[in-house]
Amino acid sequence: MSKPSTPALIADTTVHDLVPAHGGDPWRIFLHVPAKPAPEAGWPVLYMTDGNAVIGTAVDAMRAQAGYPLGTNVEDGVIVAIGYPVAGAYDSLRRSWDLGPPPGKTYPPFHDGGPEVRTGGAEKFLTFIEDELKPFVAGHARIDTGRQSLYGHSFGGLFALYTLFARPLAFQTWVAASPAIYWEDRAIDRFLQRFEAAVPEGLKAQVILSAGEYETQKLAPFQIGAADEAKRLEQKKVTRTDEFARLMAERLDATPGLSAGFELHAGENHMSILPVTVNRAVQAAFAARVST
């Protein structure tokens, strides 16, 4: 006879619904702090968008590797995953607003009777992270402000690039997985050009961009012959995820103070790449020995 079941919790992780100072809907913050004393310099910290979808993967990837730093080069750190008070992995409406670079546009509802979809709120979201979330995290754990990382996937990858260009000293490691660089006729390029025209002194950061093998012009085996095959092939001509990410990495790597690279992950599509790149973010954010 089995004993009564109990909830399976994410280790050493708390959940906080933070209402921004100016009011409005709260963000759900998943905060993982290792259950041990902080290093003298403070914990390295990894901030992540789409927190509901990534927090469990990130915590377990770190815990599994941090116990063997000589073999994995991963140590413990703080993880801050920014999500929404919903049951599912995503809040598509709010993330469209939060992660889209300004000025943004208005689109038809995701479903009949729903609200219009707006983009362009990335600066407000970034301001919340810098002015409210970071102090909140510092009140719960001692942070090494010289070892802060940001991870985002898809629209979140676009937001990571926007953040790099808008506030390049906010983080030291940036992971843009499958970034939607194509979005709104490459609106991100305006911010890239402003950044390149005024690269701040003292900038020293690494940028990791990536895409999956099946985000190229190649279809995944299970997509070949499917009802939407032709539509997918046409969309690939627009998104060009791997091409745009690779070219962006080359351009950023030529920028003083930046070390940028592109990674293509075999066998992965736009969604299956999520756990792979979450792990890459963990490895980069919590590297026990940083290459020089």
TrEMBL record:
Transmembrane segments: none annotated. This is Putative esterase. GO terms for molecular function: hydrolase activity, acting on ester bonds. Keywords: Hydrolase. The keyword Hydrolase applies. The keyword Nucleotidyltransferase does not apply. InterPro entries: AB_hydrolase_fold, Esterase-like, Siderophore_Hydrolase_D. It holds the Pfam family Esterase. Belongs to the esterase D family. It comes from the Bacteria.
